Amino acid sequence: MTVMILGLVIFLGVHSVRIVADDWRRERIAQWGEARWKALYGLASLVGLGIAIWGFGLMRLDPLVVWTPPVAMRHLVALLMIPAFILLVAAYVPRNHFKAKLGHPMILGVKVWALAHLLANGRLGDIVFFGAFLLWAVLDFRAARRRPAPAPASAPPAMSATLASLVIGVGAYAVFAFWLHRVLIGVPVMPA
């Protein structure tokens, strides 16, 4: 589990700079330029995520079961992941109502994803992994709400963008739930 925790510290640490050291972040961007900052941020994020995922896989080889969730929780997770995917997509689709109303749909999507997976996984490593993401998302959302609001968008939200977020989100969910989760994670969403 040490490898997974190291990866989480790197990945979530990089993503927490804006929470704990926003002034330092702005100084680095001013000093290095936005492109260099984003490149270093992205590289550190990828390294941390890769180590966390590798460690998560290692943890699964020798799990410590804390509790056994009821089978019904798998159905709840499958249901909760639909809005999680829609919120994730809404973070990248310009001018949608989700982003206009919620402000930070990706962070909310991470909250839903992490909470859902905590409900259905009772191994210590799962609790640490998903709990770390949930804690980060709660703190990041709180910090984002405290920052000055960005300038309003020049154009109002469009229903077409909102519908695109919904359709792409549900489509991405379907692909992930019915195929990619088993391929990438090794666990079917709904075992037979």
From TrEMBL:
Pfam families: NnrU (PF07298). Keywords: Membrane, Transmembrane, Transmembrane helix. One of its GO terms (cellular component) is membrane. The chain crosses the membrane at residues 40-59, 71-93, 113-139, 160-180. Coiled coil: none annotated. It is a multi-pass membrane protein. Residues 3-188 form the NnrU domain. It is found in: Membrane. InterPro entries: NnrU_dom. This is NnrU family protein. It comes from Halomonas nitroreducens.
